[in-house]
């Protein structure tokens, strides 16, 4: 789970607050899906990949051994992970002369040490060519606060992938100039960009924990060159996002909920479900199913607290009707917690964390 304010210090405060504030169960108005977490397979041991800070989200460069991790803190940004050697190093784009003609209104290219990357998404655009979309907090100068979606090109024709900065799109502001803070991102085949906002500036963590509507989905298109809110997508804590394979539907994780909308404006909710055992964070495809991970709440009978949010789950979702299939659960350990995403690569499952100094993985037996 991720929470954001409007500066680095507030971000840190938000995360600490998340794990120390008690509250009542959220999204209680949604029907509980038929899911049996008690028989879910237990992850007995985790292995680790180090040299990473705050790997909040993970993607794979398709059909390669390479993974990319976001880094949600200073001196972090993006990481290149070798899934064979289980090693990681920073992935830095050289200084570009100018932004791509596709993004003429870009803000200055972010400094590698200033980027704080949240959700990421990858799209193939040609043979061994990919676009990487990254939600970025700050990223230009310590004295400048901004919220952008950064777009990079990945060239996989060399021994190691090469990253090139293409440009960025500025997140919208409210009527008094406060930035909307992006959370997760996904792109369309027409170069549209979809971003979740977990909390609009007028809302806070208390509102979100109380189950109030705090966020929405926003869409940017090359035609309009601006973000517009998709009316009808307002939810409690909009988080992970994905498009259906035909791009006719949008999937969004929101606290203990998952919803499916038509890709229209206004959008129509066509399915929704509730995770009675945990929160849903980042959302990605795993073959023909969706997959998410997050903290468990099964023992939170007295409200969400630090003690009961330490365990984690991995859940697959039927994209048609959002039927849940919790496939793994794991116990908290002192080395790794704050699970925010899962990436399935063959029989290996990689886990990200929004505040730990490593990513984890385990093998499916």
Explain the overall architecture.
With 365 residues, this protein is mostly beta strands. The strands form six sheets. Strands 1-22-21-20-19 form a five-stranded mixed sheet, with no helix packed on it. Mean pLDDT is 88; it is low at 1-34. 4% of the residues lie in helices and 41% in strands. A hairpin with a 2-residue loop joins strand 7 (115-126) and strand 8. The protein has two helices and 25 strands. The chain is globular and about 55 Å long.
Task: Draw up the topology in text.
Blueprint: H1 8-18, E1 41-43, E2 47-49, E3 58-60, E4 66-71, E5 77-82, E6 87-90, E7 115-126, E8 129-138, E9 147-155, E10 162-170, E11 182-187, E12 193-197, H2 205-209, E13 216-220, E14 227-229, E15 238-243, E16 249-254, E17 257-262, E18 269-274, E19 283-286, E20 289-295, E21 312-317, E22 324-330, E23 339-345, E24 348-353, E25 359-363
Parallel strand pairs: 1-22
Antiparallel strand pairs: 2-25, 3-4, 4-5, 5-6, 7-8, 8-9, 9-10, 11-12, 12-13, 13-14, 15-16, 16-17, 17-18, 19-20, 20-21, 21-22, 23-24, 24-25
What helical percentage do the residues reach? under 10%
Q: Distance N terminus to C terminus?
A: 27 Å
Report on the biggest sheet. Answer: 5 strands, mixed
Given the helix and strand composition, which structural class is it? Answer: mainly beta
SSE order, one letter for each helix or strand: HEEEEEEEEEEEEHEEEEEEEEEEEEE
List the strand order in the largest sheet. Answer: 1-22-21-20-19
Total strands: the figure is 25
Unreliable spans? 1-34
Shape: globular
Keywords: Signal
Protein name: Gluconolactonase
InterPro entries: 6-blade_b-propeller_TolB-like (IPR011042), Serum_paraoxonase/arylesterase (IPR051288)
Signal peptide: 1-22
């Amino acid at each position: 789970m991720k929470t954001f304010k409007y500066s680095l210090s507030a971000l840190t405060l938000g995360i600490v607050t998340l794990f120390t504030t008690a509250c009542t169960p959220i999204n209680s108005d949604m029907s509980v899906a038929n899911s049996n977490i008690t028989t879910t397979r237990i992850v007995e041991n985790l292995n680790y990949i180090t040299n990473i800070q705050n790997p909040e989200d993970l993607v794979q460069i398709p059909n390669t051994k390479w993974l990319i991790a976001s880094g949600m803190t200073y001196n972090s940004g993006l990481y290149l992970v070798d899934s064979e050697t289980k090693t990681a190093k920073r992935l830095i784009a050289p200084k570009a002369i100018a932004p791509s003609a596709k993004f003429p209104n870009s803000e200055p290219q972010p400094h590698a040490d200033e980027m704080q990357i949240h959700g990421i998404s990858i799209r193939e655009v040609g043979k061994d060519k990919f676009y990487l979309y990254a939600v970025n907090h700050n990223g230009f100068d310590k004295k400048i606060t901004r919220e952008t979606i950064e777009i990079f090109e990945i060239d996989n024709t060399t021994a190691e992938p090469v990253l090139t900065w293409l440009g960025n799109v500025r997140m919208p502001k409210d009527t008094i100039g406060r930035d909307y803070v992006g959370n997760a991102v996904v792109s369309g085949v027409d170069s549209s960009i979809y971003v979740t906002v977990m909390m609009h500036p007028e809302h806070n963590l208390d509102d979100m924990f109380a189950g109030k509507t705090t966020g929405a989905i926003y869409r940017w298109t090359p035609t309009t060159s601006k973000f517009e809110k998709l009316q009808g997508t307002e939810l409690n804590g909009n988080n992970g996002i994905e498009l259906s394979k035909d791009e006719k539907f949008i999937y969004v994780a929101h606290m203990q909920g998952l919803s499916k909308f038509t890709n229209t404006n206004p959008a129509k909710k066509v399915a929704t479900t509730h995770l009675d055992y945990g929160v849903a964070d980042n959302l990605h495809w795993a073959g023909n199913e969706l997959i998410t991970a997050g903290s468990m709440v099964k023992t939170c009978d007295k409200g969400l607290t630090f003690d009961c949010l330490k365990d984690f789950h991995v859940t697959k979702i039927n994209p048609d009707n959002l039927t849940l299939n919790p496939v793994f659960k794991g116990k908290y350990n002192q080395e790794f917690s704050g699970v925010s995403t899962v990436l399935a690569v063959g029989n290996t499952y990689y886990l990200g964390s929004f505040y730990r100094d490593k990513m984890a993985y385990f093998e499916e037996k």
